[in-house]
Design goal:
- By secondary structure, the protein is α/β, with parallel strands linked by helices.
- It has 18 helices and 26 strands.
- A 9-stranded mixed beta sheet has the order 2-1-10-9-11-12-13-14-15, with helices on both faces. Strands 16, 17, 19, 20 and 21 form a 5-stranded antiparallel beta sheet that branches. Strands 4-3-5-6 form a 4-stranded parallel beta sheet, with helices on both faces.
- A hairpin with a 3-residue loop joins β24 (433-443) and β25.
- α1 (4-13) crosses α2 and α2 packs across α6.
- The longest helix has 18 residues, at 30-47.
- Bound molecules: adenosine monophosphate.
Length: 516
């Protein structure tokens, strides 16, 4: 089945239902959305003569045309290659070339930069700028095409990993993978009703965009913020206006939203479900979020290779205050989603007993087919059908998974493993601490020593001594940071994740300068 059928079906049942909003403004209903997608598809297939399986790159900011472009691509039996709009034009160019894209949709504000690094000599046959006059005239004149059938295994979404080490790799997701992900949303994350709305506050090229499927399927509303991204004040206003609003947010975004709602006593009742994930949510932060905004949160743990679908921590689990293991569960990422198996294994692939830390592995229908044109990387990532996530964690006897860190972030000091997350959780108990990231610095004596980068809330104070005392109270002595660096902000990537690689690099460079 082709993913485009989700839209075809909804457009038949609820043609007049509002589909896309730009801020508060209604842009189109489901009949119009499906029609525009079908005209784009017609152009790609009949005029450009693209063939099934061809890749079409989408280098666009969050905007009202995003979904019609994606569905147009699927409608035509082609595969979408989403490119994060915040990438440098050269990085985008790499993805266009590596994927062998034959057409490109690019937002007007990104087009000039991309043309400067020249995609002209690539195999692109056409570049479209959604919203401009030639695009709109194409949508007026192109006949409506029939949706092309797709096999379940056909490539639908070629997503490039953020590539903190080496070149980004293209993760191949099929129609079937994404349909499975959609079903997991209903079963494990949230129910969706037609009067719900999803707001895209995070890049649509990533997981946030994939959450369109459950909402298209149920004929719900899709809201693109005017800012195209994350602005707490705007989101609160949009939620109050549209009501029953869900969204996906990285934990750093949740934190900012909660701080805003708390500071101005905003009415948060317009939010239905805020799904958080993509990085660690600290216990203190989710406690505050629940206290300030109430039972409106659910967590997912996933990665590009099994998007949004490894585990989930439901609203019910988050709010079961009387459960004896509620505190542990708050710190966990929940239980395996319905269509995957999850286990924790040692370096030989043997399943470990409960509460033992090892690598998290996942198997099931949403797991990728492999990496694009990269059988070696695929063979390393998928062994005996299990995807090796690169995340370290432990599972309790009830099946709740608690993540420690990515294996490459684990600090080995004096032969002992130190999980940065554990130290970070303790430092965040100090009310003056706003954000923190703990990394290892190479050390001739210990192998590595622990360094904490700490940012402080405006108007509050703390000290290295106070933080050290907190650590002595909560964790083993050898895990305490040897050094505290007080900084204004922490470096983050385009999805709001703290870049430990940048912090480690900074420490390494300082080390080199001192020894030079
Ligand atoms: P990406 O492929 O860029 O989406 O990054 C996936 C990685 O983000 C995972 O392998 C985890 O290390 C991290 N991650 C995703 N969800 C969570 C979560 N709920 N809690 C902690 N880390 C997470």
């Amino acid at each position: 089945m082709n993913l485009a059928q989700l839209l075809v079906r909804t457009a038949r049942i609820f043609p007049e239902a509002p589909a896309i909003f730009f801020g508060r403004r209604l842009v189109c209903n489901y009949r119009e959305l499906a029609e525009r997608a079908a005209r784009i598809a017609g152009h790609l297939r009949n005029t450009l003569k693209l063939s099934p399986g061809d890749r079409v790159a989408v280098f666009m900011t969050n905007n009202p045309e995003y979904l019609e472009v994606l569905y147009g691509i699927w409608y035509a039996g082609l595969a979408a290659v989403p490119i994060n709009a915040k990438l440098h034009a050269r990085e985008a160019e790499f993805i266009v070339r590596d994927s062998g894209a034959t057409a490109l949709f690019v937002s007007s504000d990104l087009a000039a930069g991309l043309m400067n690094v020249s995609v002209e000599d690539s195999i692109l046959r056409a570049v479209f700028i959604p919203g401009n006059s030639s695009y709109e005239s194409l949508l007026r004149t192109e006949p409506i095409a029939q949706a092309e059938p797709s096999e379940p295994d056909d490539l639908a979404w070629l997503f490039y990993t953020s590539g903190t080490t080496g070149r980004p790799k293209g993760v191949m997701q099929s129609h079937f993978n994404l349909l499975a992900m959609t079903m997991c949303y209903f079963t494990d994350v949230d129910q969706v009703r037609q009067d719900d709305a999803i707001v895209y506050a995070a890049p649509m090229s990533h997981g946030a965009g994939l959450y369109n499927f459950p909402h298209v399927l149920m004929g719900a509303r899709h809201v693109i913020p005017d800012s195209g991204g994350f602005d707490p004040e705007e989101l609160v206003a949009l939620a109050a206006h549209h009501r029953n609003v869900s969204m996906f947010a990285a934990p750093t975004m949740v934190k900012r939203l909660v701080e805003h709602v708390d500071a101005v006593h905003a009415d948060a009742t317009g939010f239905k479900t805020i799904v958080y994930g993509g990085g660690p949510m600290y216990v203190e932060d989710i406690r505050l979020a629940l206290a300030v905004m109430g039972n409106r949160f659910a967590q997912i743990y996933g990665q590009g290779e099994s998007p949004m679908t490894i585990t989930a921590l439901s609203k019910a689990h988050l709010t079961a205050l009387d459960h004896p293991r509620h505190a542990e569960r708050l710190a966990s990422v929940g239980i395996a989603q319905s269509l995957v198996e999850v286990r924790v294994a040692d370096e030989y692939g043997n399943t470990l007993p409960p509460d033992t830390v090892g690598e998290v592995m996942v198997k099931g229908t949403p797991v990728m087919k492999g990496y694009w044109n990269n059988p070696e990387a695929t063979a390393q990532a998928i062994r005996d059908g299990w995807l090796l996530t690169g995340d370290m964690g432990s599972m309790d006897a009830d099946g709740f998974l608690t993540l420690r860190d990515r294996s490459k972030d684990v600090i080995i000091s004096g032969g002992s493993n130190i999980y940065p997350r554990e130290v970070e959780e303790v430092l965040l108990l100090d009310p003056a601490v706003h954000e923190v990231s703990v990394v290892g610095r190479p050390d001739p004596e210990w192998g590595e020593v622990v360094v904490a980068f700490v940012s402080i809330h405006a108007g509050k104070q703390t000290s290295a001594q106070a933080l050290d005392a907190l650590c002595l109270e909560h964790i083993a002595r050898f895990k305490r940071p040897k050094e505290y660096r007080f900084v204004d902000t922490l470096p983050k990537n385009n999805y709001g994740k703290v870049l430990k690689t940048a912090l480690r690099k900074q420490l390494m460079e300082e080390e080199h300068e001192q020894t030079a």
